[in-house]
Specification:
About 5% of the residues lie in helices and about 10% in strands. The two termini are about 35 Å apart. It is largely without helices or strands. It is built from 1 helix and 2 strands; from the N terminus they run E-H-E.
Length: about 100
């Protein structure tokens, strides 16, 4: 959403949307939203720089990101200068694991 707008469906759902059967869940694209009688709303992009996207070196499964003999992978993340002191932010980390 930094550089591209994002849409969502405004539609009334009965009960708890997390437990709805698939045919009554909130649609995530415009055509299905309109078919369900919803209103598709577009939010403008935030007009900030896109996030950095890098290819990382491969590592073996279940080795906690260790790459060869150099130790764990890492990334030095810099907080953007545009974030004001005492501003409220969300930082989401995702770690994918595999298991047998």
């Amino acid at each position: 959403q930094n550089v591209k707008g994002k849409g969502h469906c405004k539609v009334t759902v009965p009960g708890n949307e997390a437990t709805l059967p698939p045919d009554t869940q909130i649609p995530n694209h415009e055509e299905a939203c309109k078919q369900r009688g919803g209103q598709w709303e577009e939010k403008e992009p935030w007009a900030i720089d896109p996030p950095e996207c890098l290819a990382l070196p491969e590592s073996r499964d279940n080795h906690l990101g260790n790459i060869g003999t150099t130790g764990p992978q890492y990334y030095t993340w810099r907080v953007p200068e545009t974030i004001k002191d005492n501003d409220v932010c969300v930082f989401r980390l995702r770690y994918n694991i595999t298991s047998s």
